[in-house]
Amino acid sequence: MEIVRPQNLAGVFDALELSPDALLLAGGTDSMVLVNAGALRPDNVISLRNVKELKIWDGGFIGAGVTYARLEHSDVAALAELSRTVGSPQIRAVGTLGGNLGTASPAGDALPFLAAVDAAVELVSGSGSRVMAWDEFLTGPKKNALEPGELILGAHLPDVVPERTAFAKIGVRQAMVISIASVCVTRDRAGITTVAMGAVGPTVLRARGAEEMISGEAAPSEAALDEFQRLVSEEARPITDHRSTEEYRRMAVGVLARRALERCLA
Question: 164-265: CATH homologous superfamily?
C-alpha cells in the first residue's frame, strides 16, 4: 500500500491524477473499520490530514477537515452539542465534518445540523468547484452527489444562524454510540423554526409540517408542543434494523424534537 501525504489541494489533485482510484483518507473513523474487517483493501491512499485548505473554519465556512474536537468549541450551541456526542475523545480528535458528508449515513451526527440551517456543500476538483444545497448533495442512504475526481471542500453556513439551536440524539447507551434517532432544532427571534431529523429516514429529513405549525406560535402552549411532537413523529420515515424498531424511532424522534424545542424556548 502506498500512502501520499499532500500539504495542499494542488498536491491532492496531482496525486489523484497518478492514482485516480486512491482512497481519500481524512480521519479514517469509517474507512478503517472497513479495512479492519477486510471489506476494504486500497492499493493507494491519499491522506488529507495535512491539507491546509480543508482545515479552514471561519464561522461561515467549515472545512471538510475540521475535526469534531475543534467544533466542540463552537459558539453555535447545536454544533458544539452534536460534536460532543461523536464517539470518544480519540474519535473526535480525528473525525471530521467531511467524513460525515462523504459517508452520507442517515445517522451522521453533523447532518441534521447542516440540514436545519440549510447549509450548502462545496465540492472541488482539478477543474474547478461547485456548490450544492445539502439536500441536493445527500441523495440517499450512504449516497451523495460526489463525482470521480472531486472531494468535499467544506460546508457553507447561512449568513445568519439562529441564536437558539439545540441538538439531541438517542442510542443504545449514553455515550460513544451511533444514533437510533437524532434531531436539530433552530428558532430565530421571529419564531421561525426548523427541525431536521437523523437516523429516521433514508437520509436526513426536514419536518416541514411541524416547522410550519410551530413557527406560527409566538409562545407555544402545551397543546402546541403536543401537536409539534406528533407532527415530527408523523413526518419521520424510519425502518426497523439491528439497532431499533420503526415504532420506537418514530416515537423517540418526536420526543427529542420537543425537548430540543423546549431548550430553544427557555
Answer: CO dehydrogenase flavoprotein, C-terminal domain (3.30.390.50)
